[in-house]
Amino acid sequence: MAVFRKRTHAPSPKKKDIAAGLWTKCPDSGEMVFTKDLEANWNVFPSGIHDRLPAARRVELLIDEGTWRETDARLASKDPLKFTAGGSYPERVAQHQRKSGLRDSVICGTGTLEGIPVSLAVMDFSFMGASMGSVAGEKVTRAIERALQQRRACIVVCASGGARMQEGILSLMQMAKTSAALARLRAAGLPYVAVLTNPTMAGVMASYATLGDVIVAEPGALIGFAGARVIKETTNQDLPEGFQTSEFLLKRGLIDCIIPRKEMKPRLAKLLRALGPRAKAKPAARRRR
Amino acid sequence: MTTVAKPRFTLEFEKPIRELEDQIAQIRASSEGAGIDASKELASLEDKLEKTRREIYGNLTPWQRVQLARHPRRPYSLDYIQLLFDDFQELHGDRLFMDDESTVGGTAIFEGNPVVVIGQQKGRDTKENLRRNFGCPNPEGYRKALRLMRLAERFGLPIVTLVDTPGAFPGIGSEERHVAEAIAVNLREMSQLRVPIVTFVIGEGGSGGALGIAVSDRVYILENAYYSVISPEGCAAILFKDRAHAPKAAEALKLDSANLVRLGVVDGVVREPLGGAQEDPAATASGIRKTLRGALAELGKLKPEKLLAGRYAKFRGMGVYAS
Fold first, then answer.
1. What is the reported pLDDT for A282?
2. Domain that holds residue A27
3. Are residues A61 and A44 in the same domain?
4. For chain A, what is the domain count?
């Protein structure tokens, strides 16, 4: 928080500076924060609100400097359905590629986390709502398979609005593909940690996001299966206070813990040091259920 | 004695057929009463009716198939279970919270051999639909299904699943008891079950709610059933901000049986009688029987390791991308 204290007496921001993105408004307190400071603070506002973090910055947050090796960077979407409803799909993808500098909604690779070798996949919400199509599913699957081959721990930082509609049923099948890969990782006794960030919903939630040996969430993240609007329309019920937030899920016993972003790396390291994989000790043979 | 014909359920696109049928019935009734020979007129109308039926049912749009998949008289899981199996013994409950009646399952005999069959079940009327939750499983439906699948694995029985759901239930309790986890665990565990699994999508294949019992060695679909990542209405609401554009969304999603084969997501299509499965449930069931017999014979020959490798490869290969 030191970054912010320096600027308590900063001049109030001018309109044109806000427009230029020099200042960012906290969605909770309304406080204007100097964008550079926000970025230096891993996009966490002084109020504690965790803003979205670009995937590349997430890698920086978690992976030891100089150890990151991105893999499968060339994978890109095709248009298997020739999906034209609501605009051409390839054009939308191209647009997001230009805007974000990403090929699709997931980046993956290997590196060390406090010296522990990990295979990591990170979803980036800015790319079409981090929707999961063939590329996202393939990259997450490869990250899991790479962990298996190289006997590393696997971490997937989740964020997603759900499956990517424009790839139809093929997007749905990514749920089966990733889950089947996780079954193999599990049978091999290698740890998998799912990190849930704002928002993690629907198809991603009903596959690898909930299959972690350990499931951690960032504070205040929206996490669930069905969207709140759909639940309201279907059931005609008022939703409980804080429904589908990290805190709500913790209370219901659905996630292991909530970890603030700035503590994420050391606490993941603590976990992985406990879970392994160990170099020597063989994991106990998997007891069938 | 007058017999009152049971009112038939007519979909919008079936109206030309129904009109001709009514016309024929009327002429037949009035000509008989008056002793007039209307056979010529009737023959020509019958001919026209047959042509119209072929014209309409032979060129169904994806949206029309979705409507047939949701037809209130369409055979449901328990209907097919009666038609396909002997000695069905229903087994209830997830052993944790409740018995979710939107999913049924139990032991049964298929052509002399024991299997475990699991199906998603809609209600025939409002009362039954409330009990069956309109075929939308809560987490307990998936947990019951997995419990029965593990039972099958322990006793070496093949598993047959019948998919027919608009989707997993979007409700507060469903979220609180973690429907996402229930589905995800099924996906993971099904990929490792050491017995053959064969799935038929018999009506609605609603997204994760369908996939939750469909990570199988063979996945077949009935001709007018659909299987989709999102409902056409849901897709239209997102793309066009209007659920009324569902027909366009259904077209775009490529959710119909022919397209699903082309995309490599299903292994084959079971033909339905002209007009849909409800026109002749027994004939539809015999198509399923034939397909199931072939699949079980083929899968039954495989050692568990081969079976699992094949199942993994099947889903591992799904997806289209440039590299």
1. 54
2. 15-51
3. no
4. 2
Task: Classify A240 as helix, strand or coil.
Answer: coil
pLDDT at residue A226 greater than cutoff 80: yes
Q: Is the pLDDT of residue A1 over 80?
A: no
CATH number at residue A176: 3.90.226.10
**pLDDT for B174-227, tens place per residue?**
999 999 999 999 999 999 999 999 999 999 999 999 999 999 999 999 999 999
How far is residue A210's CA from residue A193's CA, in Å, rounded to a whole number? 10
Q: Which residue has 């099924």 as its token pair?
A: B186
* Distance between B26 CA and the closest CA of chain A, angstroms: 43
Cβ contact A43:A3 at 8 Å: no
Contact (CB, 8 A) for A210 and B184: yes
At B8, list the tokens.
């038939």
Please tell me the distance in Å from B319's CA to the nearest CA on chain A. 5
Whether A114 and A124 share a structural domain: yes
Rounded to 5°, the CA angle A24-A27-A29 comes to 95
Q: Is B220 left (phi over 0), alpha (psi -120 to 50) or beta?
A: beta
Whether residues A172 and B189 touch (CB distance < 8 A) is answered with no
Can you read off the two tokens belonging to residue A176?
């089966």
Query: H or E element: which one contains B248?
Result: helix B246-253
Kindly state the tokens that stand for B286. 């015999």
**Interface pTM, i.e. ipTM:** 0.94
Q: What is the pLDDT of residues A266-283, one digit of tens each?
A: 999 999 999 988 655 455
In chain A, which residues have their Cβ closer than 8 Å to the Cβ of B311?
180
Of B289, B163, B276, B286, nearest to B224 by C-alpha is B276
> Residues 234..293 of B with a Cβ closer than 8 Å to A: which?
234-235, 238-240, 248-249, 251-255, 260, 263, 265
CA distance B279 to chain A (A): 28
Whether residue A118 sits in one domain with residue A41: no
**pLDDT value of residue B7:** 61
- If you write DSSP's letter for every residue of B141-194 in order, what string do you get? HHHHHHHHHHHHHHTT--EEEEEEES-S---HHHHHTTHHHHHHHHHHHHTT-S
- The per-residue pLDDT for range B52-67, each reduced to its tens digit, is 999 999 999 999 999 9
Q: Residue A262 has what pLDDT?
A: 95
Each residue's pLDDT tens digit, A88-100: 999 999 999 999 9
Is A8 within the bounds of a domain?
A: no
Tens of pLDDT along A17-28? 676 789 999 988
Q: What pLDDT does B215 receive?
A: 98
Across chain A, mean pLDDT equals: 91
Tell me whether residues B180 and A184 touch, CB distance under 8 A. no
Rounded-to-integer distance, Cα A168 and Cα B318, Å: 12
A173–B319: do the CB atoms touch at under 8 Å?
yes
Chain A residues in contact with B243 by the CB 8 A cut-off are none
Given an 8 Å threshold on Cβ–Cβ distance, is A165 in contact with B263? no
In this structure, what are the phi and psi dihedrals at residue B54, rounded to the nearest 5 degrees? Answer: -65, -40
Q: Which helix (H) or strand (E) holds A36?
A: helix A35-40
Same domain, A60 and A177: yes
DSSP per-residue letters across B279-293: G-HHHHHHHHHHHHH
Kindly indicate the confidence band of residue B1, based on its pLDDT and cuts at 50, 70 and 90: very low
